[in-house]
Amino acid sequence: MGNPxxxxxxxxxxxxxxxxxxxxxxxxxxxxxxxxxxxxxxxARMIRVHCKTLDDYFHFLSSNxxxxxxxxxxxxxxxxxxxxxxxxxxxxQDLFIQGMKVKRKDIKSNIRPQPSKLAKFRTKxxxxxxxxxxxxNMERPAxxxxxxxxxxxxxxxxxxxxKMRSEKNSINIWSCPCATGEEPYSLAMILDNxxxxxxxxxxxxxxxxxxxxxxxxxxxxxxxxxDSMKEISDYFEQKYFEKQKTHxxxxxxxxxxxxxxxxxxxxxxTQGHKLPxxxxxxxxxxxxIYFNRKNRHKFLKILESRLVENGILVLGKTETLFDSWGSLxxxxxxxxxxxxxxxxxx
Length: 346
Ligand SMILES: C[S@@+](CC[C@H](N)C(=O)[O-])C[C@H]1O[C@@H](n2cnc3c(N)ncnc32)[C@H](O)[C@@H]1O
Known about the structure:
Layout: H1 12-26, H2 35-48, H3 54-63, H4 66-75, H5 86-100, H6 115-122, H7 127-137, H8 142-164, E1 171-175, H9 182-195, E2 204-210, H10 213-221, E3 223-224, H11 234-240, E4 241-246, E5 249-254, H12 256-261, E6 262-266, E7 279-284, H13 293-305, E8 307-315, E9 324-325, E10 328-332, E11 337-340
Parallel strand pairs: 1-2, 1-7, 2-6, 7-8
Antiparallel strand pairs: 3-5, 4-5, 8-11, 9-10, 10-11
Helix pairs in contact: 1-3, 2-4, 5-8, 5-9, 6-7
The structure holds S-adenosylmethionine.
Residues 76-80, 84, 177, 179, 183, 210-212, 215, 268-270, 285-287, 316 line the site of S-adenosylmethionine (SAM).
């Protein structure tokens, strides 16, 4: 028997015919993605609609218009949650605190989730036994302080550059891809929390884009299940969410003020970005992993062109450009943070 996905035969002729049909019907830029990823998505749909061969699926797709939407929805993987990789968000918060010249101890904020919360979500059984292990893992490794030192040195330069620009300019942040909105809303919460405590805090704009229509629609509604809340700290949960009891169980409704701070755009980012902005920070996490090496570079050019000089690019923790790519240079290896700089860094 084995895995049913493994058992579906793929020959080049049928595969290429299917990809050109899918391209013409969906408009997706398949050449960007890893072949293995595309095959898995096609096979998953084939199993759902009971097609045994690629040719069967070709015919099914040709005669069922509703399958096009199902294919696109299944093609994208919208997995995300608030403050995913919370230490990345802590570092970004440090960036702002450092730039504002306020003391860390004077700012009320706590991004770190309670270890007991992580234990509940991360371990299926015996959460209590694993609590000590999780608390230990949450301690900062020694290397963090080296990274953050280099990073903050770089940032004071970045802040100086920002000051030279017009005061009217806002800090522009782009979350690309944003899936169901947890990532851009996490950023908007951090900024709102700082703005409420720091006089004359700079204006800011958070833009969020994704190819998946359904994910964007869900983001705009702003209602989340507890799965999305698994790594959010009590501080942010209590400040920005209202708990609701519905037919489907407990849900969490995000504050209207935060909802209004994020501008959502539906777009295929491999074809460029629709809005006219240049960004100080781009979060592009867990998208590059789906792209093949050749076109990954084409895509990085789009991101690089949308960053201001000394702007910051944050990748997912499993994604890397090695130490540099074009003008993008690593400043925090642990958190995969790069700075766009045409000058020599250290
Ligand atoms: C795993 S989610 C990442 C969400 C978020 N950045 C995070 O780290 O939690 C990947 C997202 O990439 C989106 N995506 C895939 N291809 C895309 C494309 N060509 N343009 C824009 N978004 C895309 C998917 O729809 C999905 O929502």
